[in-house]
């Protein structure tokens, strides 16, 4: 397990899947805001439900986020589109509703940075988020991510186009204990 100040990032357990499915996938608005793909209903016993770990994919590393103190499941985190030639990857995370607003987000981003830069030797990490997702923007910026641009009207979200902000962090600029 990888540890931050308050959270741990561990492998996805089978018991995590129905909880993440109900609280993150089945919440259509959260899904629409956090995921670039269209929402559709998926049965719990579907062949490849969201959040289940599929066969190993070199470009996609999923984690479950847990509370370090008690081990409670807090959400999901992922390094995706890992590109070993350009040594870059994207970060994604989603916390359970009960875990939001408590400062876990920045800690999860910090642990994903440690995984990307230290464990995987990547050079660049990237985040795209809706321009009104202040909690995500702040969680990224506290770890040193900088806004590199706005992707105008790039996300179709529940009936309207929204801007996304592109944030990046280079290994050389990363300060492991910053989180200011
Ligand atoms: C986005 C997410 C990961 C952020 O994690 P979090 O732990 O809930 O973040 P917090 O509520 O602690 O907020 C982080 C910071 O943003 C600030 N913030 C949050 N909402 C704010 C608002 N509306 N206005 C001003 N500041 C705000 C908080 O005060 C906090 O500031 P601090 O770091 O200076 O203390 C989490 O809310 C989540 O999973 N949301 C649903 C899924 C999602 O949007 N995923 C991201 C997709 S790209």
From TrEMBL:
Pfam families: Acetyltransf_3. It comes from the Bacteria. GO terms for cellular component: cytoplasm. It comes from Streptomyces beijiangensis. This is GNAT family N-acetyltransferase. GO terms for molecular function: protein N-terminal-serine acetyltransferase activity; protein-N-terminal-alanine acetyltransferase activity. PANTHER family: ACETYLTRANSFERASE, RIBOSOMAL-PROTEIN-SERINE ACETYLTRANSFERASE. InterPro entries: Acyl_CoA_acyltransferase, GNAT_dom, Ribosomal_N-acetyltransferase. Residues 23-163 form the N-acetyltransferase domain. CDD domains: NAT_SF.
């Amino acid at each position: 397990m990888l540890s931050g100040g308050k959270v741990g990032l561990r492998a996805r357990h089978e018991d995590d899947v129905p909880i993440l499915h109900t609280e993150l996938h089945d919440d259509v608005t959260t899904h629409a805001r956090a995921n670039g793909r269209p929402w559709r209903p998926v049965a719990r016993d579907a062949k490849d439900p969201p959040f289940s770990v599929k066969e190993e994919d070199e470009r996609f590393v999923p984690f479950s986020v847990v509370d370090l103190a008690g081990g409670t499941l807090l959400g999901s985190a992922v390094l995706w589109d890992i590109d070993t030639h350009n040594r870059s990857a994207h970060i994604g995370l989603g916390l359970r509703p009960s875990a939001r607003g408590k400062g876990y987000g920045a800690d999860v981003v910090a642990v994903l940075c440690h995984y990307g830069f230290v464990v995987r030797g990547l050079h660049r990490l990237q985040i795209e988020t809706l321009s009104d997702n202040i909690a995500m923007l702040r969680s990224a910026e506290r770890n040193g991510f900088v806004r590199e641009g706005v992707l105008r009207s790039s996300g179709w979200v529940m009936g309207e186009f929204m801007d996304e902000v592109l944030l990046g962090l280079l290994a050389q600029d990363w300060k492991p204990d910053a989180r200011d």
